[in-house]
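[Discussion] Sanity-checking designs against the backbone

I'm trying to build intuition for which residues belong where. Below is a structure token string of 299 positions. I'd appreciate it if someone posts a full sequence so I can compare it with mine line by line.
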């Protein structure tokens, strides 16, 4: 994982503060939590529209605390062989415990584990993966077999090949191991996963407002040779643009400058206006309203 600094993420100051509190504080200041009788959170869920920096925010938090960052997606997890997906979940948690402090990041978790009541062709696999994930989050269900490195001691869980019986489950502490998940569809997640004690913090990552769009444009245009470009005007004219859309807008403006002449030495406001004619926002008013309603129901 390439390091990401907080300064590289424009806007979202409130969300940054919430993520720092939920992710950084337990790892950086565990003694403060212990002094106040607070259990360290086991899991954090980020939800919001696509393209709004959820993954980048998690990477910035991992960089800040110098934690091991283990990322897992549905494409990496699912296997045509029975039991492989559950085994991979076990391996990931093992590695995280051995390399603590660590952050396990499940991107698009709704594609990995959905509601158990939902009927689909891969429902059986999803239910087994969900069960395995819940067990690991609770600190149980560590099954080791010949395909895993049983000779290695798992940090904090005190598991070695000498005290294991093949196929049995053992108790292990997820100390300094935090699960962070991101989703665009929190309504598809199983209630057993998002209950307190497993997912302790649920944070909404909203689309950028005008002030945030201005900060994001400053970040993405920082290395561009701008000339007479009014970023405040651009931030006003980019309603419903996500962070990814704004990055694409800056890229298109630079390409328009090169289209005018390969010898171009600057990007002007006209190039951005041309880019706005081709780059459309990925968000819609109905989409933003849907997430706003989710936030109201959650609060």
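Best answer:
Here's mine. Compare freely.
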């Amino acid at each position: 994982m390439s390091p990401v600094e907080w300064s590289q993420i424009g806007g979202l100051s409130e969300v940054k503060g919430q993520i720092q509190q939920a992710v950084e504080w337990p790892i950086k200041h565990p003694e403060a939590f212990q002094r106040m009788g607070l259990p360290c959170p086991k899991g954090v869920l980020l939800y919001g529209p696509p393209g709004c920096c959820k993954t980048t925010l998690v990477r910035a938090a991992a960089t800040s605390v110098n934690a091991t960052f283990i990322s897992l997606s549905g494409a990496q997890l699912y296997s045509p062989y029975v039991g492989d997906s559950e085994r991979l979940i076990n391996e990931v948690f093992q590695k995280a415990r051995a390399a603590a402090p660590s952050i396990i990041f499940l991107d698009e978790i709704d594609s990995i584990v959905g509601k158990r009541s939902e009927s689909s062709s891969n429902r059986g696999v999803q239910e087994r993966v969900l069960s395995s994930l819940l067990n690991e989050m609770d600190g149980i269900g560590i099954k080791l077999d010949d395909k895993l490195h049983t000779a290695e001691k798992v940090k904090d869980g005190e598991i070695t090949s000498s005290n294991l019986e093949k196929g049995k489950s053992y108790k292990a502490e997820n100390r300094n191991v935090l699960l962070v998940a991101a989703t665009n569809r929190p309504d598809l997640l199983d209630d057993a996963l998002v209950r307190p004690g497993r997912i302790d913090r649920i944070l909404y990552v909203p689309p950028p407002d005008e002030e945030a769009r201005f900060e994001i444009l400053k970040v993405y245009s920082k290395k561009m040779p701008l000339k007479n470009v009014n970023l405040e005007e651009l931030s006003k004219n980019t309603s419903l643009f996500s962070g990814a859309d704004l990055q694409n807008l800056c890229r298109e403006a630079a390409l328009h400058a090169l289209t005018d002449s390969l010898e171009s030495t600057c990007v002007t406001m006209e190039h951005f206006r041309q880019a706005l004619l081709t780059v459309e926002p990925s968000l819609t008013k109905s989409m933003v309203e849907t997430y706003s309603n989710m936030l109201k129901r959650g609060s």
